[in-house]
Design a protein that fits this description.
Elements (H helix, E strand, L loop, with lengths): L2 E9 L19 E4 L5 E4 L7 E6 L7 E12 L7 E10 L8 E10 L3 E7 L15 E9 L9 E10 L9 E6 L3 E2 L8 E2 L1 E4 L14
Parallel strand pairs: 2-5, 3-5, 12-13
Antiparallel strand pairs: 1-3, 1-14, 4-11, 5-10, 6-9, 6-11, 6-14, 7-8, 7-10
Length: 212
């Protein structure tokens, strides 16, 4: 059984801080922008009502990397194995001229400030270009590396918007939708339950509720 981590809007149990820690992004060719959105949570529990966060693309026609925000999990129970991961998110770019694509950065974090290891840290956009109007599903896979963890370490997803170049120098609204009730599929638009998934099982403790 795989582990599916939903992007949730609640405050993160473990908060790595509003700082991007990717080494690959931004690189020397990128114009960089941070949307300044507070850290959210990654949870094995699906959401209840769709939420959207937005930012405005930088006004230029050059390569640009824009950091939306981070999502962090509860403490990991075991080390990460090398697997093919899936990310499924609802996104939109405001206008087709924005040429927006996603880059997920995933790593294991140890308080107070250590990146233990990257599952993925690459200057490589994945998935199809974002929808130009209503946020719609984009599903993509990536090869994730193994990372050895210790007690208290947790998983962090950094979500980035990347463009090789906008067709016009305009500020376009970039949207990420999540925390909904329906798993995202390619082009889906209903109550987006955006998620990150690995085939590995047993990453987190199982909660049991006892009724007496």
């Amino acid at each position: 059984m795989a582990t599916k981590l939903y992007l949730r809007d609640g405050a993160a149990t473990n908060d790595p801080g509003e700082t991007n820690r990717s080494v690959a992004l931004p690189d020397g060719a990128d114009v960089f922008q941070d949307y300044g959105i507070a850290v959210k949570s990654l949870s094995t529990t699906i959401g209840t009502s769709e939420v959207e966060v937005t930012g405005s693309s930088t006004v230029n026609t050059v390569e640009t990397a824009e950091f939306f925000t981070s999502f962090s999990s509860e403490a990991l129970l075991t080390s990460i194995t090398a697997e093919t991961w899936t990310i499924a998110v609802d996104v939109s770019e405001g206008n087709a001229a924005a040429n927006s694509l996603m880059i997920p950065i995933v790593y294991v974090f140890r308080e107070p400030s250590t990146v233990v290891g990257f599952v993925i840290d690459a200057h490589t956009a994945i998935g199809n270009e974002w929808a130009a109007a209503v946020a719609a599903g984009r599903v993509a896979t990536f090869s994730g590396a193994a990372v050895t963890v210790e007690a208290g370490d947790y998983l962090v997803l950094e979500f980035w918007r990347h463009t090789a170049a906008q067709a016009m120098a305009m500020a376009y609204t970039q949207t990420l939708a999540y925390d909904g009730t329906v798993d995202v599929t390619e082009d889906s638009t209903t109550s987006a339950a955006s998620y990150l998934e690995t085939p590995q099982n047993g990453l987190f403790a199982v909660r049991r509720i006892f009724i007496s």
